[in-house]
Write a structure and sequence with these properties.
The chain is of the alpha+beta class and 253 residues long. It has one domain (8-18, 30-226). The chain has 4 helices and 10 strands; from the N terminus they run βαββββββαααβββ. The strands form 2 sheets. Strands 1-8-7-3-4 form a 5-stranded mixed β-sheet. Strands 2, 5, 6, 9 and 10 form a 5-stranded antiparallel β-sheet that branches. β9 and β10 (217-228) form a beta hairpin. α2 (132-141) packs across α4 (162-180). Mean pLDDT is 85; it is low at 19-32 and 231-253. Residues 232-253 are annotated as: Disordered.
Amino acid sequence: MLQFRQNLYTEEHNFSHEGQNAAANNGEPSAAGIGTVELRLSSVVVQDNNTPAIFPYPGYAKLYLLCIVATSAAAGGYQLHLRSFDQVADGDALNMDKTIYYWKKDQPTEVAPVQIHVFTSLIKSKQPLRDVAAVLSELYRDASYKLLTATLDKLIKGATPIPDISNLLFNIAGIAGKYLEKVDDRPLLTWYQSFTGVAASGTVLGKTEKMAANCYVTINLSMVVRNDLPAAEEPRKEKPQAGSVPLLFPYQQ
């Protein structure tokens, strides 16, 4: 059984505390609404794959990257990602620059998620890598998995303490690990990152970068939050004057 609490790094980033500091020092924080929230797993670098090179074997490792995102958003607040990587050597950067969660305000009454929890684990396989689609198909049919994800969806939308949420995510990861079959008991790195008070303070706007590392792996995660501009505040688009030349390279944000 996978021991996700070995080689574990955890952190909580509470934006509400930052909002309180901003109010004390500079007046009330910005009341601008949140328009989009994007979580991106920007890089995964394997310093040591924990596989010794013994002639004639080069010391490559076969790895799975499991990532689970759970948020308090009204809809679409749960995502599970699973990727496999073969022949990973010491010092390799995995081909992983991916948006793992995206929320967009589509209706005026929609509220950005208050809590966002990210579980990431890099797991070494002892056998040829399984087809990821087959693993996910088996996982999604698992009765315990269905029960735990349904329970998580209910709890995370309430005032449930972070330890209770994290225990559920660790249990869900354990079920996923079962379908990977023969893997090392200890992942190279497991990272549990929570963001709380996301919708409570204007200080959340912009880019927040996080990193977890040990002697085996370094993982970088970023959260980008953009504001929700009312229609009256959107940039005005000027009509071209008669005889003017259109821009060949229009501005892109």
